[in-house]
Design goal:
homodimer; alpha/beta; Protocatechuate 3,4-Dioxygenase, subunit A; 2 domains; 5-stranded mixed beta sheet; 6 helices; 22% helix
């Protein structure tokens, strides 16, 4: 892996283990006895992997200085609605990985309910309940495609519908903005709604076919994307948070299966069971032009009685 | 290693490999074909180790948010003379590790010249040459201990002295400050000097016995030290940069062997061959109260013709 100039030149540094084998342990052992065990565990692992990374690539002095300056630039670029550390985590797949670690469920029988995906910062605790069959489209954009969205929330083991489960959904309008960040075009609660399933576990409502948008690339996270040769686009998505007192909730994003950015999502949050199929319809009662059916599977809380939902985050920006 | 609440509870997540085994590769594979090979190598290793760290400790959502906020705080705390990203690297041993990777030399015969240690930001390109036997102490602090410092710069293979080698030294005064950062107490070039070895490779001059100081703990690097249960003290040290046209130069810090902070240096920059022994003397010609002898070993440049010295850095603060 060595690519810098200190190796193999005229017979110096021929010893492959020329680096002090005790150095990383020395740094970890500096952690004092009063540090909480969990902090010690995290810091020890962090130091170990950080050193391994540096040794693996044999980081040069100049490269290290570039890294120091980059880390400083992250906080310097921090603004309201521009949390660069958060965005960089997303670009590097960190938020999705943390989401998976904390929310992925596989039973001993190998059964998994619907996958979770990152919440993002636009969930609202104030979203109103709407009647089944209602529309969340309060302000129809000219380029919006009205969609009849329906499905069932079911028990992943029994496959039976779960009555009185809540399907809480939110989505951006066709301009890529959510209601509260777009007051000139959208009224409060536009493209948001909570729906309670019927006695068969079924729900249905009208929404827009979601549209993709690019994330802001003006900060260090944008520089990282460019360095990696990546585009800034997120696939279109509808957010959902599904809850029921007796079931482990799931928060996810649902993506049209024909979206061009599924494989290369900027924030790496696409999973195979979160894809939506939109089909054209004609003469629909409310003039919807598309139909989309999606079922959600939940696992009983008896598997995890202490289950809690992540009910918000600190990013304050669109993901 | 799992300590969060998602494991082994009532039989869920019993599958040890429940995390997507392809996820890290997926993120790495997003790197485009136009990214420079070295950038790709560094980013791939960084992503791989970052993900391994997160999986190893099973980072919780809350812990991750703490990390995001901490990373943002680093750049937000950046000030002139307070480069927090740099300091955090020092606390985590990163600068010392990078120094070792870039400067440690072991010949195929297993011979090593004098070790290097981090340069720090206080080297000056303007330091004057002084005659052998001169004093660098222009402004004697009341609590200073004048020291006669002498030694030989020799070829690590032949053990012979190297004439006309340059021993460039600098040190803080007893208040922990370097000349240019302490204009009210120190004149320009105080406690700095360049000395050229004589025909036997010998050098000698007068300086102060160095005194330890604590690094500033007002920023995120100080918070990290506290979290790790560590003190902020650096062992006392004299900086040296030794050069000769025909030899690979060495930059290092030299520490009194009785310093209480050698084992727990905040920046992890102490090495066994960089220790100084100070012995009391009486009736010394210039009234020095201590004597210190230290020899430096250099390796011929024919082992590494492209050798360059790091001639400055961007930290702008005391290390």
């Amino acid at each position: 892996m060595a690519t810098n100039g200190t190796n193999g030149t005229n017979g110096i540094n021929g010893h492959t283990n020329r680096f002090d084998p005790h150095f990383t342990k020395h740094v970890i052992d500096l952690i004092g006895p009063e540090t909480a065990p969990r902090h010690k565990e995290i810091l020890s692992s962090l130091i170990s992997h950080l050193h391994d990374f540096i040794r693996e690539v044999e980081l040069t002095q100049d490269e290290w200085v570039v890294g120091v300056n980059y880390v400083n630039s992250i906080g310097q670029a921090y603004r309201k609605n521009r949390n660069e550390a958060w965005r960089i985590c997303d670009v590097l797949g960190v938020e999705s990985l943390v989401d998976e670690i904390n929310h992925k469920i596989v039973t001993e029988q190998g059964i998994s309910p619907t996958s979770s995906a990152i919440l993002g910062p636009f969930w609202s605790p104030d979203t109103p309940f709407r009647d089944l069959g209602a529309s969340v489209v309060q302000d129809m954009p000219p380029d919006g495609q009205l969609t009849y969205f329906h499905g069932m929330i079911k028990d992943v083991e029994t496959k039976k519908g779960i009555p009185n489960a809540v399907f809480d959904m939110w989505q951006a309008s066709t301009n890529g903005k959510y209601d509260s960040f777009d007051p000139e075009n959208q009224s409060k609660h536009n493209l948001r709604g909570k729906f309670k399933t019927d006695e068969n576990g079924r729900f249905n409502f009208y929404c827009l076919k979601p549209t993709e948008y690019a994330i802001d690339t003006s900060g260090p996270s944008g520089d990282l994307l460019k360095l990696m040769g990546r585009h800034p686009n997120r696939p279109a998505h509808i957010h959902m948070m599904v809850t029921h007192p007796d079931y482990i909730g799931v928060t996810a994003q649902l993506y049209p299966n024909d979206d061009p950015w599924l494989e290369t999502d900027t924030v790496c949050a696409v999973k195979d069971d979160l894809l939506l199929n939109f089909t054209p319809v004609e003469n629909e009662p409310k003039d919807a032009v598309l139909d989309c059916e999606y079922d959600v599977s939940l696992l009983s809380k008896r598997y995890k009685p202490d289950s809690t939902m992540l009910m918000g985050n600190a990013a304050g920006e669109k993901l």
